[in-house]
Amino acid sequence: MLPIERERVIHEKLLEYLKKNSKGLTMTELVKGAGFSRKAIEKHLNILILENEIYMKQFGVTKVYYPNHRIQHFDFERLDYNTKTIWFSILESEFGIYLLIQKKKKLNNKWIHEHSITIPLSQGEQFLKVLDKILHSQRIQKLLKEKNNKSAEE
After folding, report:
1. What is the rounded average pLDDT for all residues in the chain?
2. Tens digits of per-residue pLDDT, 116-130?
């Protein structure tokens, strides 16, 4: 098995194992139950946290890992540009409900996560106001105008 395929297998199996144990698992439990090395699990836990697939809570020196639960709905949105897609969906954890914005690209028929951000749904209106302020600022308008003029010249 190629190293990249092995990485994908570890990633998917670890996430699947965590989803089957929604009450959370410690590193010791993950190593014992998932069947991978502690180092490999540690690496993929960090990636899964960055991808907003899981979250971690620390109790003293013990870290417990939990799966995030996506709310199933039919009105998620996506924005396609170039070879990338930005996905907008709703995420629920014990901390609340969030808007999850993820940038992914498709490579060999697999979605590869690049970046993500979570915004508390209760702060959605405030987020939109700040975004609108940025998009309509004089500085951004000037940058867009300069970029459009360069594109027109080429």
Report:
1. 87
2. 888 999 999 999 999
Q: Are 97 and 121 in contact (CB under 8 A)?
A: yes
- Residue-wise pLDDT tens digits, 27-54: 999 999 988 999 999 999 998 988 888 9
Contact predicate 68/54, CB 8 Å: yes
Output the pLDDT for position 8: 84
Distance CA 93, CA 49 (A): 13
Domains and CATH numbers, the chain: 3-67 (1.10.10.10), 70-153 (3.10.450.700)
Helices (H), the chain: 3-19, 27-34, 38-50, 124-135, 138-153
DSSP letter at 121?
G
Identify whether the C-beta of residue 101 lies closer than 8 Å to the C-beta of residue 87: yes
CA atoms within 13 A on the CB side of 19: 11
CA distance 14 to 51: 13
36: which DSSP letter?
A: S
> If you search the block for the tokens 């409900």, which residue do you land on?
97
Burial class (CB in 10 A: 0-12, 13-18, 19+), 94: exposed
